[in-house]
Design a protein that fits this description.
The structure is a homodimer. The first copy, chain A, is about 25% helix and about 25% strand. Chain A is built from 16 helices and 29 strands. Chain A is globular, with a radius of gyration of 24 Å. The model of chain A has no long low-confidence stretch (mean pLDDT about 95). Chains A and B meet through β3, α7, α8 and α12 of A and β3, α7, α8 and α12 of B.
């Protein structure tokens, strides 16, 4: 026997936390065979590659990721992220499973991951549907989760982000069923969100093993309670600084995660390479920062014997880094083969054809009409009280959201001068096309935007300055099988078709990124609220969730107080 | 709902690596419900316990342990070790499975652990039989391991110490089958031993995830290669000092393990409490030392959501420590109940009756005779060359082991002045009573010792200064259903019956410990070789293994060169 590949003369940071040292890495097939002095099995068939002056590190492992947020299919996404060193990711499938009738969404990533050199571990969704107050195409409970674990035991290592805090605490049969199926099969329960401290213990006791946090006291409390933290560096600069002042003694439960990032942002900023670079820039010792992107995440997901260290038996995923502290990835080896050099793929990727069942997922039973967006006032009123969603993220402590709105012709009117526009969510999975409609303080005093990337139900959402533009935008968005459409005065100004589940494009990533940038540029010209100014078409996808810490949400079923799960009238 | 138990006013070291802090621990049933400020759910049924002035730490988790080495049944062993804080152990079952026909040995520990407050995770044996050159009562291959995982999915978390290095490297169907069954079911493969560096990579690539080491270079190499180290402090003092000089940045893969310890030693020195105390004494920061006995081991075995930190959802195993640095365990709570105080159990334990099938395991088809121990010389010789086992542990680098021995009456004789005694291993499981017999440089110039605790086949072993005493000792040992018997001039001087599998006693631990001490005292008076002077009756159990780094071994099948697996003549 001899090695198939030998990466020579590099300096190794193996991921174990040990200091760097000269070592060669020998690969047999798709596995690392030996690290160190590996001269003994070099043979005539051994390919030799020099890494002189370079540092060899394990391929990056993202502990919490949504490929769908790139707006790219798994193959197109890999084209962007493999050259950045992302060789393994734990895919939270609740986007695709809500759009693709449940488990077929998990299967999509299993199949893609088996063909790509990028290893994909699709986590079964804990949020399909995300809450009882919205309609989606899929349902995952105990039975479905158990079935997924039986069908894909190696890939489906656990469930993605448990986040419907009220349902955790109230003992929802579906959600606790999914958690139980995971624990019953000795798998990992990922969490999400920042429960208030007085219920954090209950949330963890329910089985949740990981979360995000960007607040030092909360993060430290979670670490104390054994929770694996998945940090997104851009929100964590201050917290990391405080960790370093403490100093945090034990980083094993601190990992990095990209979570959601569009193709445009991936190309502009980077992916996990950017997270590691940022962590180092914020002061994390470089070896620790690399561990946060490799072994810490692999160990959390119980795959440290496969990923996260340059050691025998692990998948042969090796990054050749030309500038260690600045995380410049020169070459990427995955499954024992060179897959990228200088930021570019060395050969095309093949993930198989996309299952036709994942297309044509925007199934409206009829075109939308302006009357779908009319909100009637009680009789004989010139103005009404309306619940108006505020333009804010992530807040449990909202003040009253009641505003006075004018009535004209018996219909409640927008107040665009105060930034109050009309917003609708339309069930798009062929389940009756229920429509919720209310007001939202989003800005945008002209035109309309329709889109199907709307966390986490991904129904068809649309807002606009006129009902006419709303109908045109929404119908166009349905016609292109989902994606984004921006309309003004009856004309389409920009659009991005996302025909795979209404979430992803199989088009060239650079073109998708260009379309995203154009959407943002056009949307910015429509005067969004200041909180949406940065990347408005990405922001709007996250602004109306039904999980903690959102207090209200408009779904296809109407407007809801999420704490009480009670429906609220749009106006009264 | 209100807590069942509240441990108040203590200082908590929760195991996460965080600094100590004031916190209360609230328990609901057998689980920890909350840690910190837990006033909110105190009710009339909440029992309150003060830990004022005390430190609360998680119950100890031993990552690699053999209850059998205590010579006590699981229940009797728990009587000794629960008051020392050992609330969880990963039991390497290859002792009992070799003696109890395979899986019934695993089942014994599953059943006991389900009834005791001490959690037992019996690892399926990778060493049943330990090698192809010995006879035992059990066989565990792929099928048997897979069956065990199916029957006891929660308890049988993996396999115990892979140590038959030649079989790992040669691709033994049985051993690789057991490893594969473990990996197929996403479980943990524990290793053992210190393969030479040139084959270490192959050993790890085969799936081995843990090992022991007491040599700094080797240990650091293993850590670099992602191996979890299970340190036994008494062999690791110097290595730990070197770790601290480095300094070792990342201790997560360094755990403590007691491995083997007799009831006498457990009572005299302590168990995991002693290991933690020693680690602190050697300079390990105390919080890290406690992590080495808790979370590091729990995480390695993928049960960090159950054990190893004082956090919600974990088993309610809490140690109340009165002297943190000296590891003085004042009280032990296990499964949410007080089980020990001041080193003593607070209530008797119940592990159910021992299955009668685990008794009467010494099944000789006839009594032993002096002629069984005769070694014939080739015709017409006054002296012969003999392979004489040296009295040494753990060495790959043995010189020649050939000695000249006298012949008398056609029979090869001992040379007691040079410490060369006669040694026999007798198959004792009713499988034909094959007998291997050769010479061993053990010292012991009088009497004979017979015993059935003989790693890892646990056949009946006997050595002695006369064939007559050997026969008497061996027959007596069979009559008491296994254990230890020391005979001199035809009289029994000391004995310890171990009627459960020939390995364990269900008697009072103090009495068993007294018997062990007496055996050692008597054996010491029989002039053992210097390397056996300390605890001779324990040492002899480990001196004749068939795994790496032993180079030769006498089994019931005869004398073997373990590297080549070739049989060797006793004399030539």
């Amino acid at each position: 026997m001899s090695w198939s590949l030998l990466i020579k003369n590099g300096t190794v940071i193996d991921g174990s936390g040990a200091a760097r040292g000269k070592a060669d890495v020998a690969i047999a097939g798709d596995r690392i065979a030996a690290v160190g002095d590996v001269a003994r099995h070099i043979g005539p068939k051994t390919t030799r590659v020099s890494a002189k002056g370079m540092t060899l590190v394990p391929g990056f492992v993202d502990a919490h990721y949504h490929c769908e947020s790139s707006r790219l299919t798994a193959r197109r996404h890999a084209e962007v992220t493999l050259p950045q060193g992302l060789t393994v990711y734990f895919e939270g499938t609740h986007e695709i499973t809500n759009a693709a009738r449940g488990l077929p969404g998990v299967e999509y990533f299993v199949r893609a991951g088996r063909r790509l050199p990028q290893k994909i571990y699709p986590c079964v969704s804990s949020a399909t549907p995300p809450s009882p107050v919205e309609t989606t195409s899929g349902y995952i409970g105990y039975r479905e989760a158990a079935l997924a674990f039986e069908r894909w035991p190696e890939e489906a290592r656990g469930i993605d982000e448990v986040m419907d805090l009220p349902r955790v605490l109230d003992g929802s049969r579906r959600l606790h069923g999914v958690i139980q199926a995971t624990l019953d099969d000795r798998r990992v329960v990922a969490g999400h969100g920042s429960p208030p401290l007085d219920v954090l213990d209950g949330w963890i006791a329910a089985g949740v093993m990981s979360s995000h946090s960007a607040r030092i006291a909360e993060a430290l409390t979670m670490l104390r309670k054994g929770v694996h933290l998945q940090l997104k560096t851009e929100r964590s600069r201050e917290m990391i600084r405080q960790f370093l002042e403490l100093p945090l003694r034990d980083w094993r439960n601190v990992g990095l995660a990209v979570d959601d990032r569009t193709a445009a942002d991936l190309l502009d900023r980077g992916g996990m390479d950017y997270e590691v670079r940022s962590a180092i820039e914020f002061g994390v010792p470089p070896i620790t920062a690399y561990q946060m992107a490799t072994i810490n995440n692999a160990a959390h997901w119980q795959v440290a014997h496969r990923h996260g260290v340059l050691a025998p038996g692990r998948c042969a995923d090796v990054l050749v880094v030309s500038d260690f502290d600045n995380v410049v990835v020169d070459r990427v080896f995955a499954n024992g083969r060179l897959v990228a050099a200088n930021g570019r793929l060395t050969a095309p990727l093949d993930a198989g054809a996309v299952d036709p069942a994942l297309r044509n997922t925007v199934r409206l039973s009829r075109p939308l009409r302006t009357s779908d967006f009319e909100i009637l006032a009680p009789p004989n009123r010139t103005e009404v009280q309306a619940y108006v969603l505020p333009p804010r993220y992530f807040s449990r402590d909202l003040g009253p959201i009641t505003k006075t709105l004018p009535v004209s012709g018996g219909r409640v009117q927008r107040d665009l001068r105060r930034g109050i526009t009309k917003f609708a969510v339309i069930e798009r999975y062929g389940k009756g096309m229920s429509i919720g409609c209310s007001f939202w303080e989003l800005g945008f005093d002209v035109g309309a935007i329709a889109w199907t990337v709307h966390h986490d139900h991904h129904n068809l959402a649309v807002f606009g300055a006129t009902d006419e533009d709303m109908a045109i935008a929404a119908n166009r968005c349905a016609a292109i099988e989902g994606g984004y459409v921006i309309v003004q005065d009856g004309k389409v100004l920009a659009e991005l078709p996302l025909p795979v589940c209404g979430l992803m494009s199989d088009d060239d990533p650079a073109r998708v990124a260009d379309a995203i940038r154009l959407l943002d540029r056009v949307a910015t010209g429509m005067h969004p609220a200041p909180s949406l100014a940065d990347h408005p078409t990405d922001r709007i996808t996250f602004m109306n969730l039904t999980c903690d810490p959102w207090k209200y949400s408009l779904t296809d079923q109407g407007l809801f107080n999420l704490e009480t799960q009670q429906r609220m009238p749009a106006v009264f």
